[in-house]
Amino acid sequence: MTAPGLAHPSATTTLSRSGYAPLVPGTPVAVVGSGTMGQGIAQVALLAGHPVRVHDAAPGRAEEAVEAITARLGRLVDKGRLAAADRDAARDRLETVDDLAGLAGCGLVIEAVLERLDVKQALFRALEEVVDADCLLATNTSSLSVTGIGGALRVPGRLVGLHFFNPAPVLPLVEVVSGVATHESAATCAYDTALAWGKTPVRCADTPGFIVNRIARPFYAEAFRLYEEQAADPATIDAVLKESGGFKMGPFELTDLIGQDVNEAVTRSVWEAFFHDPKFTPSPAQRRLVAAGRLGRKSGHGWYDHGPDAAPPEPHTAEPCAAPGTVGVHGRPDGPLGTVVDLLKEAGVALTEDRTPGVSTPFIGLPGGARLTLTQGAAATEELDGPHIRLDLALDYRTCTRVALAPGADVADEDVRAAIGLFQRLGKKVSVVADTPGMIVARTVAMLIDFALDAEARGVADRADIDTAMKRGVNYPRGPLEWCDEVGVRWVWQTLSSLHDAYPSGRYGPSVPLAHRATLAYKQGLS
Ligand SMILES: NC(=O)c1ccc[n+]([C@@H]2O[C@H](COP(=O)([O-])OP(=O)(O)OC[C@H]3O[C@@H](n4cnc5c(N)ncnc54)[C@H](O)[C@@H]3O)[C@@H](O)[C@H]2O)c1
After folding, report:
1. Does residue 141's CB lie within 6 angstroms of at least one atom of ligand 1?
2. Per-residue pLDDT, 19
3. Residue pLDDT, tens place only, 436-491
4. What's the CA-to-centroid distance between 39 and ligand 1, angstroms?
5. Ligand 1, residues 67, 100, 120, 140: which to mutate, most atoms within 8 A of Cβ?
6. What is the distance between the alpha carbons of residues 440 and 448, in angstroms, rounded to a whole number?
7. Ligand 1 center from residue 524 Cα (angstroms)
8. Rounded CA gap, 345 and 351, in Å?
9. Residue 32, ligand 1, Cβ within 6 A
């Protein structure tokens, strides 16, 4: 993505040089604000070979940061990941600066101070008086507008967002954010510098939440909502998203780790920045936790109990059931349900194949007459052609260790046990959850895909950077746009359209780019 340059630079708004090159290792880098993020960023710059100057407004804080960074470098030496000589050299390059004037001569200043527009604007205004004209200025803001912060500068084109993730020395992703005025060469320089520092940079536009904090919202929101709808308890939802969906952590355990207050603050800030768009609505259940001070691991309680005697969360897992001797395959299952049919064949389950024309939704027929169908957004009970059991989406049915099933209210117990037994025969654990539209993985993934398509269409970032950001920034097993290709855009559209019918608040309404792609796929006869 290319940010607009300065069309008519005046004497006071001209960049001092037409193009920034990546910083060479000897160039001094300044980090202003030496809290959690500042310390991490300073460590990254230091280990990339730069002299680093740390400044903090709170007396003694910069010195504490230097001590903390030194201790961390020591631990890297202990683990054999850094040579003692390199630690000593890095330590010699690190210094504190009491006054902003001490930052003169730096090639890059990265700001990681309090998340307040007035504070950041005042800082950059002061910095502009101190640093050379060719010094690149960067903000690590996660929720403020880079354009807004840069509005305070005489040369707004020199300010770029350089959004590291916490912990900065560990997490590879860096979002390079171009404000409206950010000069292309400033963004390129920031990108190349992050790359040279061993990070995975992505380019994005200055929009609420940038890439990750925007597209990841449904991962948390849908899980909390499913809990509010009593689809399942947190441990089961987490287990299904991990063991079936392939996510490294479930939303409940992850937000307990991040802190419910921190996670809710990001959700609220994006929701407010989008003027309360229902797609971003925060969760009343999470609000209750925050109000009660149940913030997660740091307070001993969150969704889960983290006390010393706390038992590990236990998901609901079905007891062993017998698999039916024979099941019917109706229609022509392809895609995810097709994989399930292949696996049943491989496991030696006898299948009778019914190719009668006119079966629009393929299904596996169970002995008592219920149909096992892949969820497409509508609840099983809503189906008019008989009893249905919904199968939730999995990242890959071959490798997943758990599947979720949701029987409609009219399904006989015999068929619920038969469906459980079928998947147990394939070596999977089974979680039976309430008959909730879209269930767990499918609802979450369909929303993530729609958010990603919408962000791409609005120019937030390009396809490759969106997928990279979600895989490297929040560890998703697959980029949402790759996931769309895998499951088929029409399935995504169908799932969200059905969810929109079930909950017509606007939260699930398919985005325009999703609707367009689904229509094109339909016209081309694609899935
Ligand atoms: N914590 C995260 O997970 C995270 C992740 C990405 C980005 N961010 C962003 O990074 C920035 C810093 O966050 P943090 O978590 O490190 O905060 P923090 O509270 O740990 O540290 C902020 C530091 O800035 C100092 N400070 C405040 N005003 C200052 C000023 N005018 N000049 C110099 N120093 C000043 C404070 O004394 C403090 O030491 C924020 O913009 C935040 O949104 C945070």
Report:
1. yes
2. 62
3. 999 999 999 999 999 999 999 999 999 999 999 999 999 999 999 999 999 999 99
4. 10
5. 140
6. 12
7. 51
8. 7
9. yes
Q: Are 284 and 228 in contact (CB under 8 A)?
A: yes
CA 165 from centroid of its chain's CA atoms: 11
Give, for ligand 1, the residue of 31, 34, 36, 118 to mutate: max count of ligand atoms closer than 8 Å to Cβ.
36
60 vs 63: CA distance, rounded Å:
5
How many residues can be counted in the chain?
Answer: 527
3-state secondary structure of 98: coil
* pLDDT over 90 percentage in the chain: 91
Fold identical between 29-206 and 441-524? no
CATH class entry, domain 326-432: alpha beta
What is the CATH T-level fold of the domain 29-206, as seen in this structure? Answer: Rossmann fold (3.40.50)
Give the whole-angstrom CA distance, residue 84 versus residue 342: 55
Q: Cα–Cα distance between 334 and 527 in angstroms, integer?
A: 9
In angstroms, the CA 393 to CA 79 distance is 41
Where in the sequence numbering do the catalytic residues fall?
Answer: 142, 163, 175, 213
- Long-range contacts, stretch 352-356, CB < 8 angstroms, 24+ apart: 352/326, 352/327, 352/328, 353/328, 353/329, 354/328, 354/329, 354/330, 355/331, 356/330
Contact 340, 261 (CB under 8 A): no
Where do the domains of the chain lie?
A: 29-206, 220-291, 326-432, 441-524
Ligand 1 and 119: CB distance under 6 A? yes
Class of domain 441-524: mainly alpha
What does the pLDDT read at residue 357?
73
Average pLDDT, the chain: 94
Classify 220 as helix, strand or coil: helix
Task: Give 82's DSSP letter.
Answer: S
Considering only CA atoms, which of 110, 98, 108 is closest in space to residue 61? 98
Domain 220-291, CATH number (from 3.40.630.10, 1.10.1040.50, 1.10.10.10, 2.60.40.3600): 1.10.1040.50
The predicted model gives 311-339 an average pLDDT of 93
Return the SS3 of 350.
Answer: strand
pLDDT tens-digit profile of 212-238? 999 999 999 999 999 999 999 999 999
- Residues 439-448 have pLDDT tens digits of 999 999 999 9
Does 125 contact ligand 1 (Cβ within 6 A)?
Answer: no
Q: Is 155 helix (H, G, I), strand (E, B) or coil?
A: coil
Centroid of ligand 1 to alpha carbon of 144 (angstroms): 13
Say yes or no: CB of residue 209 within 6 Å of ligand 1: no
**What confidence tens digit (pLDDT) does each residue in 110-141 have?**
999 999 999 999 999 999 999 999 999 999 99
389 phi and psi angles, rounded to 5 deg:
-115, 125
- 161 Cβ closer than 6 Å to some ligand 1 atom: no
